[in-house]
Amino acid sequence: MGHLGEFRAAAVGKLRGNKANRTANTFAVIRRLILAAATLVVASVFGSASYAQSGPFAGMAGNWSGGGVVTLDDGSTERIRCRASYAVGAGGNGLNQSLTCASDSYKFNLSSNVIAQGAALSGTWSESSRGVNGNLEGRASSGNFQVVASAPGFSANISLTTRGNKQSVVIRAESQFRGASISLSRS
Fold this sequence. Notes:
Layout: H1 2-11, H2 19-52, E1 62-72, E2 77-89, E3 94-102, E4 107-117, E5 120-127, E6 132-141, E7 144-151, E8 154-163, E9 166-173, E10 177-186
Antiparallel strand pairs: 1-2, 1-10, 2-3, 3-4, 4-5, 5-6, 6-7, 7-8, 8-9, 9-10
């Protein structure tokens, strides 16, 4: 009869046994829960570390478009429409960029290849409609990029800020092209 009672108790989820067996089972369940919690913590820490290690260009890939204002050497301004394309590689540490902007009387085609090493940025750029090219150097931090593009007889400060699917580009120079202020959205 004892076996029948244990069978019935097991069938309804109640195990008979002494207090020591129930205590041991309770500790086994607690150990499993602690192990599961520790595994979850380790997974989230390593998951966060891999995300934090992604390069500064991570999340920028794709096509962007928008508009803004270009300021010319005589101080006049014109509305411009722009398209940008970003190809990101090297774990988010490499960027190939193409930016084309045009107004009724002005157009520029800017392309660049940039590499990030930590927060430091370096690379090359070219503006095809004027046949100008040079180097760029700068810094990146949390979606903010501050870059100086230089060539013989030309220098421009470029500030780029990316927040999700929105981007702001500000270019300042001392030449025929004084600057531009552009707002882009990912297409």
